UniProtKB/TrEMBL annotation:
Cupin type-2 domain span: 96-171
Gene3D superfamilies named in the record: Jelly Rolls
Residues in the signal sequence: 1-36
Entry keyword Transit peptide: no
Species name: Kordiimonas pumila
Superkingdom, natural source: Bacteria
UniProt-listed Pfam families: Cupin_2
Name of the molecule in the record: Cupin domain-containing protein
UniProt keyword list: Signal
Amino acid sequence: MVKKQKPKNTYINTSRRSMLAATGACFAMMSQQALSTMLPAPMGKALNTIAPKATFTKDAEVDGMVEITGIHQGKGVGKAKFFRFANTPWPAHFMIYDLPPGASEGVHIHFLDDRNKEGAFDEYYYIISGQGQMEIDGQIVPIKKGDHIHTPLEVAHGVENTHPDENLRVFLTFIERGKAHNTYS
């Protein structure tokens, strides 16, 4: 009598973690493929086409610096440059303030639900040059070249140039929160 050999189980050496990872990868690929068939194709393009390769954009501060009176109801006239980068950086936005002595961005608050129409932003101030002060949540905070300040949602804040004869230059990054579309395009 010839004994039949049991077939070898080829999965014995495969860990449960490896199996779950492989299953997850397959599920992700199938989900993406299914989703691509449900989404409408852009005008004049077939479904499942590969998007064009992203490229860089460049913008210069000197192009588009504009005077603004009373930034967020602040004092004086300052200059600002909003970097649009072909409207691609959403949810991040970038701008430069150039505030002469005595000028300010007024104290303001951003809320997630935008109840005061100031936008739903976390803001990051980097001091390029000059010195001044920020009012943050009722505290006066001295600022100078090289400082980086984060003001999250629901924290009152504003910046002022307190130097007698030097402009305060600020690079501002503000991150849009809680919206599914770009309101600053």
